[in-house]
Design goal:
alpha+beta, 6-stranded mixed beta sheet
Length: 112
């Protein structure tokens, strides 16, 4: 989603060990800080949701990322789980866990 789908006070949290981890606040940090840092590491990146499960004011997304680390031709597929919190028709929070080992291995292949 683009910045117009994010609440002005969004909290975007990525599990420790993800290629760009931590908590980002507000649409600017998400799209001007986190996203470009992530895309600097990968030549291809695609999230694929295989299940979306509503839970009150949240949606749980289960799926995988597929892509290629920059500087390699090696494809990877890493599982994820996202919890999206919705408020007033916008995304107000995102917490995610991912298969950080697979991602680290893909990025490590660049250094070899």
């Amino acid at each position: 989603p683009g910045p117009e789908y994010l609440s002005p006070d969004i909290s975007w949290t990525l599990v420790e060990g993800f290629p760009v981890d931590g908590t980002f606040h507000g649409p600017r940090e998400v799209f001007d800080a986190w996203w470009p840092q992530l895309m600097d590491k990968f030549s291809e990146w695609k999230p694929v949701a295989t299940q979306l499960l509503p839970s009150g004011d949240s949606v749980i997304g289960i799926g995988y990322y597929e892509g290629v680390a920059k500087g390699t031709a090696i494809r990877f597929r890493a599982s994820f789980a996202h919890v999206w919190t919705l408020r007033d028709g916008k995304i107000a929070g995102m917490y995610h866990c991912a298969d950080t080992l697979t991602l680290a291995n893909a990025l490590d292949s660049v250094a070899r």
